[in-house]
Amino acid sequence: MTEKVLGGGGGLAAALLLLLSHLRLSFGTCPCEDPALCNPIQGSRDFEVLVFDVGGKNWKFYNWSHITTVAIFGNYDPELMCYAHSKGARVVLKGDVSVKKIVDRAFRASWINQQVDLAKKQYMDGINIDIEQEVEKLSPEYYALTDLVKETTEAFHREIPGSQVTFDIAWSPNCIDKRCYNYTGIAESCDFVFVMSYDEQSQVWSQCIARANAPYNQTIAAYDDYINMGINPKKIVMGVPWYGYDYACLGLIKSHICSIAEVPFRGAPCSDAAGRQIPYKVIMIKVNTSLTRILWNEEEEAPYLEYKDPNGAFHQVWFDNPRSISMKAAYVKERGLRGIGMWNGDCLDYSDGSVPRKQTQAMWEALIPK
Ligand SMILES: *[C@@H]1O[C@H](CO)[C@@H](O)[C@H](O)[C@H]1NC(C)=O
Ligand SMILES: *[C@@H]1O[C@H](CO)[C@@H](O)[C@H](O)[C@H]1NC(C)=O
Ligand SMILES: *[C@@H]1O[C@H](CO)[C@@H](O)[C@H](O)[C@H]1NC(C)=O
Ligand SMILES: *[C@@H]1O[C@H](CO)[C@@H](O)[C@H](O)[C@H]1NC(C)=O
């Protein structure tokens, strides 16, 4: 076709034009076998299950029967987009931007345009905004952040019908990690907030010891706080961790108290930064060679285990498992929240063995309230 239009002349120019037209074509071409799979997902399901994907091909083994949204925090994978759409699940961008810069209205608008263009180009269904920066209450950044969420939602809804804009918030509204955001304003301005109910020991002012990543009572109390502030439960999705913390103990006593190094974080003297985050699949490999196998802490209602490393140091590992996650999922149902999700979908062992297969299936099943 290009040759006909250009007729005989042209040589190099014609070749260039041909190349350009092919490039344009490849940007505009749906990568899915069925072009209908490039259409954005419409409508919503009763129970939201949001999965964070951090890259690789594990997604092929996710349990897709309940997934409603996959947030792409790794590289964009067109194959994943096509597959998710074939299962009726949305695929959304990760959104992060400097809160200092978005105070400038023009910068904010151009950032939003870029996100919308990228989503369109990749046939995606929205954006999950994950800004975990410090913001002071009533500061210019405080107002700009609420405006950013509002304007992003308006732009996406207008430009990509059916699209979804969500925002990740701290496990508690009480200025956790110096993130003092306008939570009610943000929740009002987007489709829902995702509460990151983990890293709950990021700021510890009491005894500096290893504790649960997401203790049950502390987790639940914070949802009550958000709801009591006036956020509609149907605008809240609970986030649970599929990872835990491995702490090297400075001392470990019989009653399972593991004292840890004092590592300060955002004003607090002690923090989970003293530990190392490890995925559920790695924790499960440690169980059989641990000193304790899986123990249960009644106060925090969380599992943990202890092991000795090759240098002879004791470690305590705190995590979540089907038992602790299903308790939280039960609360999601009881309190009428919008759904559940996890950081992150790639923490499980998707290999073929019968033990990992069972463990992985149980983790997916624990998400769905009975
Ligand atoms: C939070 O945002 C909402 C919506 O923009 C606004 O009505 C409210 O005044 C804000 N709250 C504060 C404390 O600024
Ligand atoms: C751990 O031990 C259990 C029971 O003793 C066994 O069924 C399982 O296969 C072992 N797991 C691994 C990873 O070796
Ligand atoms: C958790 O909270 C409930 C309700 O407030 C209370 O009855 C219970 O004792 C608490 N559990 C622990 C272990 O603190
Ligand atoms: C996915 O979840 C459904 C419902 O919970 C369950 O019936 C099914 O066996 C699971 N599939 C896999 C592959 O684990």
UniProtKB/TrEMBL annotation:
Q: Which GO terms describe its biological process?
A: chitin catabolic process; oligosaccharide catabolic process
Q: Main localisation, per the record?
A: other
Span of the signal peptide = 1-28
Question: Which species is this UniProt entry from?
Answer: Salvator merianae (Argentine black and white tegu)
Q: What is the documented function of this protein?
A: Involved in the degradation of asparagine-linked glycoproteins. Hydrolyze of N-acetyl-beta-D-glucosamine (1-4)N-acetylglucosamine chitobiose core from the reducing end of the bond, it requires prior cleavage by glycosylasparaginase.
The protein's name is: Di-N-acetylchitobiase
Naming one, the record's GO cellular component terms include: extracellular space
Q: Where in the cell is it found?
A: Lysosome
Task: Give every GH18 domain span.
Answer: 1-370
Q: Which GO terms describe its molecular function?
A: chitin binding; chitinase activity
Q: Which UniProt keywords apply?
A: Glycoprotein, Glycosidase, Hydrolase, Lysosome, Signal
The family classification in the record reads:
Belongs to the glycosyl hydrolase 18 family.
Q: Which InterPro entries match?
A: Chitinase_II/V-like_cat, Chitinase_insertion_sf, DIAC_cat, GH, GH18_Domain-Containing, Glyco_hydro18_cat, Glyco_hydro_18_chit_AS
One Pfam family of this chain: Glyco_hydro_18
What is the top-level taxon of the source organism? Answer: Eukaryota
